[in-house]
Amino acid sequence: MEDVLRPVVAIGGAVLLTLILVWLTDRALRRIDAAHPETPLWGLLRRCRIPLQVALCAALLHGSFGQAGLKSADKHAAGIGQALNLILIAAAAWLVIRAAAAIVESSYSRYAASGRDAARVRRVRTQVTLIQRVVTAVVIVVAAASMLLTFPEMRAVGTSMLASAGLLGIVAGIAAQSTLGNLFAGLQIAFGDMVRIGDTVVVDGEWGTVEEITLTFLTVRTWDERRITMPVSYFTGKPFENWSRGGAQMTGTVFFHLDHSAPVEKMRQRLLEILQECPEWDARSWSLVVTDTTPSTIVVRALVTARDADTLWTVRCEVRERMLEWLQAEHAYALPRISTSPAPLGSPVLDRGQEPGAESARS
Asked: Which has more pLDDT, 178 or 43?
């Protein structure tokens, strides 16, 4: 009877104690979160329940396994202990990653709630995102190395590996030159404030918004919802347009090709009326001037402003549509026309190759 009760008590007690401790921790975090709603950290830390359960259970089972008295498992005690060690290391790394993500997300949420500068908020968001990815990568590498060192064979190999670490480092550096370049370029973008998540950029003639920045690549979402993925080294080695740097406000133009008789002064008044009725216009500036002329038309430029690139596109389309509608309804003569005149009556029709005046010369 004792041979049955001891394993049940040892293993069942470890599992039950794990559930109780995690439940108490979760309850405490829930109460703290309710008492301090201005700090989202405590609520975010509740995401660590599952890795905490796995880590505690593995640690308690590792400590109580020797007291379980399972005769059938004595032959495999080393293997079971090794498996529990691996599970404990993996769960601890998982827990650290979840806790770091909660701390980073909480810090960014509090900063974004109190920050008034949208550009600075996007910069902080880019930085904390890359920092979180670096922390995750470091924790995974350390956890993987720790798991490998639990095997006795790997400890013996470690001495020879350290002896050739210099040569391996040089070879790895040459082989991963592109990857390392992208890695350092990602850190340069994060802390150099070159481009941020949410910035409006133009790369290779494509206009879009930066959606994601990692340590190696960057994703731009275009206006038609396509995703362009490119290495981050592109933004450190080639020129590109960042319409959000220094502020998201933008100025745009609308061009009209009209007849010389177009009422320019009335068009100015109409432009102001259109802009005052357009909620997307930010009221910073506007103008309407004649910028060029040709023998058949004039070029009229309307200048408008908006708070960002997306809104500016809406304002330009609104001005173009309503101005053309107004010209067609009230000033149709101002639209461009092709002037033609009928041929004089009674003029002789010249044969192909006949020179003008040849007929009069014959007579």
From this structure: 43
Percent residues over pLDDT 70 in the chain: 71
Give me the pLDDT at residue 172, please: 47
Residue 81 tokens read as 């202990």
Q: Is the pLDDT of residue 238 over 70?
A: yes
Q: Which helix (H) or strand (E) holds 200?
A: strand 200-203
Q: Among candidates 248, 256, 255, which has minimal Cα distance to 282?
A: 248
Sheet holding 217-222: strands in order across? 227-231, 217-222, 206-213, 200-203, 241-242
Contact yes or no for 198/182 (Cβ under 8 A): no
Please list the alpha-helical segments (H only) found in the chain: 2-35, 41-45, 49-68, 77-114, 118-149, 152-163, 165-175, 177-192, 234-237, 264-276, 309-330, 358-362
What is the Rg, in whole angstroms, of the alpha carbon atoms belonging to the chain? 36
Q: Which amino acid is at 129?
A: T
| Residue matched to tokens 């020879």 | 160
> What are the extents of the domains in the chain?
2-114, 250-334
**pTM passes above 0.85:** no
Q: Write out the H or E segment, with its range, that includes residue 300.
A: strand 298-306
Whole-number Å distance between alpha carbons of 55 and 138: 19
Q: From 57, 206, 190, 76, select the one nearest 133 (Cα to Cα).
A: 190
* Structure-token pair, residue 293: 């002329």
For the domain covering 250-334, report its CATH number: 3.30.70.100
User: Residue 167: its pLDDT value, please?
Assistant: 47
**pLDDT top residue among 73 and 140:** 140
From the number of C-beta atoms within 10 Å of its C-beta (0-12, 13-18, 19+), residue 100 rates as middle
In terms of Cβ atoms closer than 10 Å to its own Cβ (0-12, 13-18, 19+), residue 18 is buried
Evaluate whether 211 touches 219 at the Cβ level (below 8 Å).
Answer: yes
* N-term to C-term CA, the chain: 141
